[in-house]
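Internal ticket - ligand job 404, 4'-deoxy-4'-aminopyridoxal-5'-phosphate:
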Amino acid sequence: MNFSPAKWRRHFPLLAAHHELHYLDNAATGQTCAAALNAATAFDTQSRANVLRGTYRLAEQADAAYENARRQAAAYLNAAGSEEVVFTAGTTASINLVAHAFGEGLHAGDEVVLSLAEHHSNFVPWQMLRERRGVVLRLLPLTADGRIDLSRLGETLTPRCKLAAVTHASNVTGAVTGLAPIVAAARAVGARVLIDGAQAVQHGPVDVAALGADFYAFSGHKAFGPTGVGVLWGRGEALAALPPFLGGGGMIGRVTVEETTYAPPPRRFEAGTPPIAQAIGLGAALDWLRAQPWADMNAHTARLAQRLIDGLAVLRGLTFLGPRDLKERLPIVSFNLEGIHPHDACQVLDEYGVAVRGGHHCAQPLMDFFGVQGAVRASIAPYNDDADIDALLAGLQDAVRKLK
Ligand code: PMP
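stdout (structure tokens):
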């Protein structure tokens, strides 16, 4: 393997400045890479103007940089074209956009299929849609170790289904969803498919053409890009079929006192001034990421996850949430130690310079399924190394001594 986590770390100014930090909360947010920071700063210091409004040279430069970011995002996703990329505020905003725009065409009794493993951002917008339109939510069940149970697909996704909205990978268990059968079942009944890609994008480029879905949502900050920006990818024809969600400047064809016509996608869905510098930063991050040695990097993070799982196994009173085997699984490891509250464990770990998250991870239905209130979650990125895992294990041993 010719991948060096130490060298990769140098691309992340915060980590380069904090040698003592063991940052293992990557599922919550990745650190920002230098490519993103530099591109966003270059925009603000050299070509800042509003986009798609001005005719002077500076405004044209801003337009070019913004549209270039759209192309960079399209390339990361293997989208058919940059017009399939809508910049949003993040995964949550992307899913809400679809819940409103697509939801507009749904009627009482139409069904939306989710899974029990969804993040609240792929749950609550659909519950709100249920309030507005009377749609029925159907849930794909889970296997005992927390994978989406595809053996029950046929009874959940029926001809009444209009949309299946499922996560690409769980932010709690790291389990990667077997999307192909879900997409095929949805296609068979003419339903659309939305994939929540918030976690998956951090672990390499995505191929939306191969996935065969209609919508793909993700956040820039999980992909080592800026906060405040994200993407909704939509298949050309699927986006064109949607009415706008937010109204305002930039999304119109023509406005008269009587009525408004709308711009084609993606502008139809980008009302108001978009997060320009952030989108440009995200484009640069994705462009940089696309060129990285992902096979080696994923082998590296899987090895670290295995080191963690092996180290945890010897702790007394430990329970895992999710599959132990690392097949079809991201390097996200959630667990509980009997008698120790996740927040207390995190506090002890902080003394070891270890940043991990404890709580329900915005996945309370999944926590209910596991019968727990919360869990400690360590989520690994390519810049992590053995020392990060060992500090976490040492801190946990101390937590067991102190808190049990
Ligand atoms: N879905 C999943 C699977 C996530 O992990 C997250 C972030 N934790 C989100 C959606 C929401 O992302 P954001 O808060 O960036 O909108």
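Auto-summary: The CA atoms of residues 66 and 280 lie 6 Å apart. The longest strand covers residues 161-167.
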